[in-house]
Hints:
DNA polymerase, domain 1, hpI Integrase, Chain A, 3 strands, 4% strand, globular
Amino acid sequence: MSGELEAFIEYIxxxxxxxxxxxxxxxxxxxxxxxxxxxxxxxxxxxSLFELLGRYENKRTLNRKLSSVNAFFDYCYKNxxxxxxxKLKLSKIPKLLPKFLSYKEIQNALKMIDKSTVxxxxxYALILFLYAxxxxxxxxxxxxxEDIEGEWLRIRHAKGQKERIVPIANIAKEAIxxxxxxxxxxxxFVWANYQGKKxxxxxxxxxxxKYLGVSPHVLRHSYATALIIGxxxxxxxxxxxxHASLLTTQIYTHVQKQDLKETVDACxxxxxxxx
Length: 275
C-alpha cells in the first residue's frame, strides 16, 4: 500500500470517523487498483483508471469504485500530495422506479397473521405501522412509548437527527394499542422481540419478508405511493417522509403520471379512437 493511500485510510477512519465497514470498502477498492496496475494510486493517470474500471459491467459497482478514487484524489489535492485536481465522471445510471404494494395486497397479507399470540399481534401492528406512517425501519425500531401521542407520532431519531411529527391512521393505532396491552409494560421501545428486548433490524426484515415477501422499506414506498395516487401534494409527502430535498420525493411522480394516464384512458371518449 502506498504512503498516500495509507494516509487516506487513516484520515477517513480517524478524522472523518467513518464506519469500519465503509473504511474497509474504500481500502479494498483502492488497494485493488494499486495491486492490479502495480504502482501507487497517485501516479496512475485517468486513462489507465478508466481502462481498468471499464471492465466492470455493473454500473453501480463501477460508480462505487469511481467515488472511492475521487475521494482519494480530493484528499490528496487538499493535502498538497498532488497539484492536479482529478475528478472522474460517474457513469449515468437509469433511475429505478420504487417497488410498492397496494393496500389490497397488504390487507391480504395481514389476514395470514395469527393474532391469538403476542408475536402475532406485534407482527400485525408492525406492518400496519410501517404502511400507515411511512417511517424508515431505523425510525420505526427507535420508536419509544412516549413518542406515540394520541393519533400522532413523534419521530425523534430520524435521518440527520431531525425530528418530525406525523399522523397515524386509527386502524394502525388500535393495532399498536392491542399489541402494547398484551406485552410486558416495563420497557422503553415499542417494538420488542420474544424476550422483551428491542427488536432488531434483521427481525423486522424477517417479519415483512415472511408475510409480504418484501423489505420494510417497500412499505415506506407503498405509503408514499398511496398518498400520491390519492392526490397528496408532493411537498406534503416530502414533509411526511422526512426528505431533506424535494428531488428525493420526486421519484414518486411516475405513479401520479401513470394514474393520470390510466384515468384518461378509462374515461376520455377519444382514448380508444383510432384514425
